[in-house]
Specification:
53% of the residues lie in helices and 13% in strands. The protein is of the alpha/beta class. An 8-stranded mixed beta sheet has the order 3-2-1-4-5-6-7-8, sandwiched between helices. Helix 4 runs parallel beside helix 5 and helix 11 packs antiparallel against helix 12. The longest helix is centred in the middle third of the chain and has 26 residues. The chain is elongated. The mean pLDDT is 93.
């Protein structure tokens, strides 16, 4: 019996890694859609996918599940195109790093009988493109799903099965709560890394750069993430991110004030509170 088709739209790091991971399980026949023929040929040549198409209409035809794996603003655009292509019985999901605007776009674009289950795998690297694919990328990671109250249970089960098949755990949140939390745990750390790299690099010079150690490397690693992807994330999740940046700014101002005043007690208190806070996030 021929397995049902899973169509992954977008063969970047996340889409390509998902396709490659799913294909090893055999539950779905994996089809990829991408406008770049070179990406499709690369994925076919390495066995990441079973079928390839540069045409969205042909790519989603007959698919049981369609996964939109593109930057967040591109996902909203794809949903607009997809509305006239999918038919009742198909399920649509995504991997976008923001959720509220995408869920709203899906609600407006998709026809009755085509449920949308928002998804966001908490996984990735600072690299991009199909050449950066990691087949086991989602093993042991968490994927957040953001179904709405009226989303059919069967559609949620299908998307849950997808993420379980690649070794991920599934956590359900409301879309707005997802965006608030991710602004704190992902979007703000990226914003800080971008800012830290931009602040430090110009003042180092060749000799100074030779002294840069692991703390700077780890603190700025994700500053090499694709700029266009993070431009979209920052703008799509603007208000929660601004709140997170403001909260960070208050703590940085507190640290600066203690340093400027030479206040040893205040500085010690700040550093101890920070260490304790970090420990609540990652206990050994």
């Amino acid at each position: 019996m021929t397995p049902p088709v899973l169509t992954v739209v977008g063969l970047g790091l996340i889409g390509g890694s998902l396709a490659a991971s799913v294909r090893t399980g055999g539950r779905w026949r994996v089809r990829a859609v991408d406008r770049r023929m070179s990406s499709l040929e690369y994925a076919l040549g390495r066995g990441f996918i079973d079928e390839a198409s540069a045409d969205l209409s042909a790519g989603v035809q007959g698919a049981e599940l369609v996964v939109l794996a593109a930057p967040v603003r591109a996902i909203r655009e794809l949903l607009g195109e997809l509305g006239g292509l999918v038919v009742p019985g198909q399920v649509v999901t995504d991997v976008g790093s923001t959720k509220a605007s995408i869920v709203a776009a899906a609600r407006a674009a998709l026809p009755p009988g085509v449920p949308f289950v928002g998804g966001h795998p908490i996984a990735g690297t600072e690299r991009s493109g199909v050449q950066a694919v990691v087949p086991g990328l989602f093993e042991g990671r968490t994927c957040v799903l953001t179904p709405e109250p009226d989303t059919p249970a069967a559609a949620v089960a299908t998307v849950t099965e997808l993420w379980h098949a690649v070794g991920a755990q599934v956590l359900s949140l409301e879309a707005e709560e997802h965006d608030r939390v991710l602004a704190l745990v992902s979007h703000l750390p990226h914003a800080v890394a971008f800012s830290l790299a931009a602040a430090v690099a110009p003042g180092l010079g060749a000799k100074g750069a030779a002294l840069a150690g692991p703390s700077l490397a780890s603190g700025t690693r994700v500053a090499e993430s694709p700029a266009a992807v993070w431009r979209d994330i920052c703008l799509e999740n603007r208000e929660p991110l601004l709140q997170a940046i403001d909260a960070f700014g208050e703590r940085l101002a507190e640290l600066r004030a203690a340093v400027a005043a030479g206040d040893e007690a205040a500085l010690m208190d700040f550093l101890c509170r920070a260490a304790e806070a970090r420990g609540t996030l990652w206990r050994p």
